[in-house]
Structure formats: C-alpha cells, structure tokens
What does this fold into?
Amino acid sequence: MKYLLDTANLEAIRKYNEIFPIAGVTSNPSIVKNEGKIDFFSHMNEIRSIIGRDKSLHIQVTALDTEGMLKDADRILNAVDKDVYIKVPVTMEGIHAIKKLKAQGIRVTATAIYNKIQGFLAMEAGADFIAPYYNRMENMGLDPEEIIASFAEMAALYHYPTTIVAASFKNAGQVDKAHIAGAHAATMDPSILVSALQQSYITNAVAGFDADWKSIYGDCTISEL
Ligand code: G3P
It folds into this structure.
C-alpha cells in the first residue's frame, strides 16, 4: 500500500511528508485553486524540493485538446523535471495524449476515472498510474470497490505495469476499502490521515495508559528512569 498526499499546500506537504510514510504528491487544477494564484512552476518545484526525486510528483495538464495536453506536458517537464508524472484526464483527447506521451517515454498518470473502460483503455495505452475517483463514484451510485477490483484483476491478468492510485476520498474507511479492493496506492488530503489517528477511542486509550503510568511513576518517562 502506498499513501500519497492530494494537496498543493506547501505547509501541509512539509509537515505530513515528514510524519507519514508518503510515496508522492498529486494535485489537479481544483487543488491548485485552493492555494490562490500561486507562481505555478516555482510552487511545483518547491513541492519537488520537499519530497525529493525518489517520491512521485504528479502534475495535471490543463489543456482540453490533445495537442495542448502535449504542450502542457512538455512545459511541465522542462519547468519542473523529467521525473514528473503528467496527469491526463481520460477523455478521448486525453487517451490520445496518453498514447503519444507514452510513445515518447514520458511518465503518465491517467486521471478522472469513473468507469471501467476508462481504466482499461488507459492501461492499454501504457499509463503508469490510473486514478479511479472513489468518492465521486459512490456519489454516482457506482461501486468503486468492484471497479477497482476489476482494474487490479486486469492488471494482474495481462501483466500491465500500471499502478492503481485511487483518489477522491472523504474518509479513511474509503481509503482502506480501496486498498483492500486492490488499489496499490491511494492519494488523499492529509486531513483524512490526521483525523483517522485522532479518533477519541485512540486518544482515550492513550490517556488511560498515561494515567496508569503516572499513578506509579509520576511525570518520569521511561527514558528518565
Ligand atoms: O485526485 C482527485 C481528487 O482530487 C478528486 O477529489 O474530492 O474533488 O472528489 P474530490
């Protein structure tokens, strides 16, 4: 299982990349919008300098046509670095762009995936990552676990080297279900991880241990014995 941060917030990336076992950072134009009118490329370069070259950085194109997507990809790779995964929504123009990008050996993350054929086509086109949108599927009355399981099954059956990075989460339970269904990775806002570890049953358990220890040893911790 891999956990990626689905945010462009530098403070959050700095903090949670340090705390959690993070494999990379993803964003999209809506996530970028949350940061205001940032200097886009210096911001993306700053994310890279925080996470380093060993973790994956996924940056989405904004053009809607194939030629424009290829130009966006070229600009991103030149302005950030060649290791960036170019995120391309799986539209008809997008699948065309994915084919062309892969023919040039460029790293690609196929995104905005809601149905099976989008994921299957992206795998066949050579996408390195495919990003099914878990919560949005649920909102549409679809079964994200069944769809993710199909991607995992096809990837295994036909030996596609594609990594399934599930996205669009509102809580940790959805992340767990995506992983159990067969997603190799999941990308999420860090608040989902933070909230999962701050549930009252956990903090109550820790408070109980703390009280019991202090009832015997006072404020002296193990390292101070
Ligand atoms: O990575 C895709 C994701 O950001 C979409 O999430 O919350 O807008 O459905 P959401």
